[in-house]
Amino acid sequence: MTAPRVSVVMVSWxxxxxxxxxxxxxxxxxxxxxxxxxxxxxxxxxxxELRALAEAHDKLVLIETNANLGFARGCNIGADRATGxxxxxxxxxxxxxxxxxxxxxxxxxxxxxxxLVGALIAGEDGVEQRGARRGELNHWSAFVGFLGLQRxxxxxxxxxxxxxxxxxxxxxxAEAVPVTSGAAMLMRRDDFNALGGFDERxxxxxxxxxxxxxxxxxxxxxxxxxxxRVLHYGSxxxxxxxxxxxxxxxxxxxxxxxxxxxxxxxxxxxxxxPLIVGGVMARAVLLSLFRR
Length: 292
Fold this sequence. Notes:
Elements: E1 6-13, H1 18-28, E2 34-41, H2 44-56, E3 60-64, H3 71-81, E4 86-90, E5 94-96, H4 100-109, E6 115-122, H5 139-147, H6 153-156, E7 175-176, E8 184-188, H7 189-194, H8 207-217, E9 221-232, H9 241-259, H10 263-291
Parallel strand pairs: 1-2, 1-4, 2-3, 6-9
Antiparallel strand pairs: 4-8, 5-9, 6-8, 7-9
């Protein structure tokens, strides 16, 4: 039986110094047959280096869009060009550790289709980062999260469980979750295409939550695989924190508008929007001040 071919799809826009390390790691990683890199824009010297690498490595396919078209659209562009049986979406500031790709594929092969498998994402300190295993995003979980009501879980129970699960004990094997992270996720290419790919109305953030939901609504499974590990530097892009968080806020509002179309859902989204925008942007300001 022929081993399945895996295509890594990566989207880069002024990623910073971690891009070179990430590209080198993917090119050197066994189990990756093709590497599709969508260059939305990088400094001229970085773009020149990428072109030279594409000429030197047959498995590196460089697509230059000459504009920042957003993460979702960039991933779709890369997926359209990819030829592998699997698509491994990987952030340009992420470094897959040895065996990661094979583990993701092996876990996926045992699941009902369509499936999506996400890796454990850790920082340089080895600590699991936020986002790789999350609960269901709905109006209530967003309300709990933005107001910090998860602190009341010991008193009121599961209804106040934190949507982010990185503080919970790490499972030893793959675990079903409602949401995993687009920073390092794998699924079959034909399933991705059948679901319509990423929703391009998201510019940056929330598109992964949307895709995970559509996988589950199609009768498939979303899994978090702690044995597949990815080093993630995070926040290396030159994009301003305010711009990134504004994209996240818009994405959250679009998500609720899309998946809760009934009158009560629409009304709840309208009422929740000021909290979403205010909470996300306040966090952006605090993070910016903290870094300074």
